[in-house]
Amino acid sequence: YANTISASELKTHLYEFASEAFNGRATGEAGQEKAAAYLADYYKSNAIKSPINDSIYYQVVPKDYLPEGVNASENVLAYIEGSDYPEEVVIISAHLDHLGGTDGQINYGADDDGSGTVALMEMAKAFKMAQDDGYGPRRSILFLHVTAEEIGLQGSRYYTEHPVFELHNTIANLNIDMIGRVDEAHKDNKNYLYLIGSDRLSKELHYLSEKVNNAYFNLELDYKYNAEDDPNRYYYRSDHYNFAQKEIPVIFYFNGEHEDYHSPTDTPDKIEYPLLEKRTKLIFATAWQIANQDHRLEVDYFNY
Question: How confident is the model at residue 55 (pLDDT cuts 50, 70, 90)?
Answer without folding.
Answer: confident
